[in-house]
Amino acid sequence: MFDFLEGYxxxxxxxxxxxLTLLSAVGSLIWGTVLAALRVGPVPLMRGFGTxxxxxxxxxxxxxxxxxxxxxxxxTLGISLGAHGFSHINFRLAVLGLIVYTSAFVCEAVRSGIxxxxxxxxxxxxxxxxxxxxxxxxVVLPQAFRSVVGPLTNVLIALTKNTTVAAAIGVAEAAxxxxxxxxxxxxxxxxxxIFAFGFVVLTLPTGxxxxxxxxxxxxxx
Amino acid sequence: xxxxxxxxxxxAATGDLVVLRNVNKHFGALHVLQDIDLSIARGEVVVVIxxxxxxxxxxxxxxxxxxxxxxxxxxxxxxxxxxEGKELARLRADVGMVFQSFNLxxxxxxxxxxxxxxxxxxxxxxxxxxxxxxxxLDRVGVAAQxxxxxxxxxGGQQQRVAIARALAMDPKVMxxxxxxxxxxxxxxxxxxxxxxxxxxxxxxMVVVTHEMGFARSAANRVVFMADGRIVEEATPDQFFSNPxxxxxxxxxxxxxxx
Lengths: 221, 258
Fold this sequence. Notes:
The complex is a heterodimer.
Chain A: H1 10-40, H2 44-57, H3 62-76, H4 86-116, H5 119-127, H6 132-147, H7 149-162, H8 174-184, H9 188-217
Helix pairs in contact in A: 1-2, 1-4, 1-8, 2-4, 3-4, 4-6, 4-7, 5-6, 7-9, 8-9
Chain B: H1 2-13, E1 18-27, E2 30-40, E3 45-49, H2 56-62, E4 71-76, E5 79-80, H3 86-94, E6 95-98, H4 110-120, H5 126-139, H6 155-167, E7 173-177, H7 185-200, E8 204-208, H8 212-218, E9 221-226, E10 229-234, H9 236-241, H10 246-256
Parallel strand pairs in B: 3-8, 3-9, 6-7, 7-8
Antiparallel strand pairs in B: 1-2, 1-4, 4-5, 9-10
Helix pairs in contact in B: 4-5, 4-6, 5-6, 6-7
């Protein structure tokens, strides 16, 4: 029944999906947190930048962003992010595009977490002489992150599925392989089911594990 | 009032620790602090009392610039309060603050609450900071709770930890913003006792409170505020037995006789 799978590197394709997901997740967590810090900061210019970034980026379709990294950054401006060869370059471009896009959502999740931290926590931190960055890094963000594990899990699951858009610029991840197989094989329903199952295998444990983590690290008040 | 203010001016010559001159602040249309003049000498315990909304908490919070002021001058140890930034952070480390709602860092243990400022602001090493923290926790009577999280402590214990956290910075002056107002009645005394001990040890203190017993027993001076102004300043004895202003008489008659 699964004879048609022969000759296709299914695991390899999902491995690319996993790499795309993990690299983009780390990148967007960092950049998204920086954006959130900008948005709650005391400098109006930085606040303005953070707000503009989020409102512009989250309203552009991911496909447009991913295509822009390839057509705009790479083919027009000649940016290759230090990689050589079509597949390497496009993989890095896809990670960049996913980070740019996902960080807008991470920023908003983190910012909502910051809003759950009572204002007295920051006041007490300032009162013992911590500066703005220390207040954020040592007192506010650690508590904010603990309260947004749930929303961040949603973002991570969405990101996992969004990596399929990288197929648009020729990254050989799961969706690209599925397209190949659909063109060459007859078992359309079965192929779709296999790939759907593959994504569920990736995302379901993510949700369960992070759900448990979220409960575990919650701040008691 | 003249008696007290003459005495105060003598102290001013020797350099008061906290000086507020002609301080004004508005919250929108509300003129919450009106021409406040107040000097606090080294080692003095000043209790600020008054009805709700009189501006006494705001006054307390302006001294370490958790609230900004619209006009006037605030001097700490002879230096004007700097703008937000490094200088201000340094100054705040010298001004201890205790809040009505404790505000212990909820994600850190009691011990970490008391060491954080020492390590990150005073740049002490961890061991030294922990030794000092344990000594302070012992002094306020919660040494046994060092490894618990704030949420596991009673309100009175939390507030005593908050006092230890402030003391860990070796502050020049301690501000108390209604430190017992959020406590169950039977926990108020354990906090007041710690504060009384602190006053006896010569700490300069500004205490906003509704605890008249504390004002009587520990204060060098009572400042009575109403509607954003300092209405009366006197020694506790003078103030409680013989208030001069009608506003203070009215206030005292409402809280002392029932």
